Amino acid sequence: PDTSTFATVSRAKEWLSTCTKHHGDCLVPARTELPSRVLVVSNHKVILRETKGEIGRYVALSHCWGRNPVVRTLRANIRDHKENIPWPALSKTFQDAIILTWRLGFHYLWIDSLCIIQDDPDDWAEQASRMAQVFSNAQLTIAASRAADGAGGCFTRYASEPFTLVETDGQVRAVTDPGAWAAFVPAPATTDRDGATRRLRIGPQIEHGLTRAPLLQRAWVLQEQVLSPRLLHFACGELYWECVSHVACECRGWERRAETLQSETRLRKAHGRLVELRHRHRRGGGLAATAMAAKAAEPLERSKDFEAYRTLVEQYMDLDITNDADRLPALSGITFGRPHDEYLAGMWRSMLIESLHWSPSRRGAERRAYRPATYRAPSWSWASIEGHITHVQDFAASSYRSDDNAKPKATVIAVSCTPEGIDVRGRIKGGYLRIRGPIEEATVSKVRAAGANDRAGADTCAELVGKHGHIHGTCLLDVPLVSARGESAEVKKSGRVLCLQISTSAALVLKSIASPPGSYTRVGILITDEQTTHAWFTHSRSEAVFIS
């Protein structure tokens, strides 16, 4: 199929019209305040406009920057861009998005690289803080899902390998010649009554067309997809529609109500929890908002809230990001919705003890965890690590049940994060946690690569010896082995550490640092059973510890 044809555009118009007129959950104001800057588009012409509070309708573009440079608005060329952005200077993805915007009947398009002054830190911070409004208020988000960079474009002409249609049990299965893989297709009438098969070419199914799409592997895109009420995916060989109420594909083989897909493995692989999160955002005002927000103190609802946010963080940290410093800003748009809570380096104050139970994960880890060279977050936050993240399951799953033995054992005395700019959910330049709990000193007897029998999933473990001898449990280190001598970048054999119990089955592993005096940095987490922690911490003194 050719996704640049007028038939494809007509199909997109049909989806958009149906959604606008009939989908109550997808309502977007017919006219809203435009972003600070938009592109004014016509057929093969585009200029940049400062909107100054203008009201109108606009489309947003979600795309991969990739390795190839894309045209950007800079302090040196913004005046020129307000006069004209030369068509040849635009990438194919930008050109396709402009053409599509025009064909759909819109005059305004928002593209991040052109609507944000890329070499102005103040403008970048201000516009990044408004990302939630940009995508939430867009009439439509065009997702260049198939393109790894600007050269890939939106439109494509695709020819799949040949298939044979075979009818089995009243269903039609498309099978490749060698039988490499098969997919059910919604066209039983295409099989002859005598059982003969006919040859044809069909596009890939959702698991091939969207699951592996380059755009969906990018960290910035998660919030764009959660916040957008309507998405038009240009995938490999086919167009996909997704809104709060409905999902569909160009071949009409994948049409149903959005909520019916929440339990399907294929959609979870392609989008994670996007359908659920989009519902919550449109109905409740943000990622962490729930229908029970007013009852945040209720144990069960707090547990559910943490479970949802924890899952999001784990999935988010599986996504790629080009600039390590963008990890918190790229999530900021979907961290609204808890007006009486405090957001701290990727964590919520009301759920801080639970949130400390994170560890780097081996799960599917193509890359090993590391602390970015440039400061990104205090050591107690998962945002201080770049890599896959997991949370201690036994605590998180039942954190507030009175009959459960995984209960908080520490108390937060004070906590603070200092933002780098105006966005408190964006980049930060400092932070600390003052926490009180049972403490015990220990010595590192061995640092080793984690094995299959170790709990959770870090790359590197340490064996600890305390006052009562060897500590049974798994000490998961935040940074993996870096030498054949069995040393971690942060923890060495015979080194002294401080263990601070935070729950019945877990303790933070801390290392003393010189600045500020008397403070510690997190280097790992110790996971044990109730019997071990009871024996080790029962008679321990409780102290307040400063962690930076």
From TrEMBL:
Residues 58-224 form the Heterokaryon incompatibility domain. This is Heterokaryon incompatibility protein-domain-containing protein. InterPro entries: HET (IPR010730). It holds the Pfam family HET.
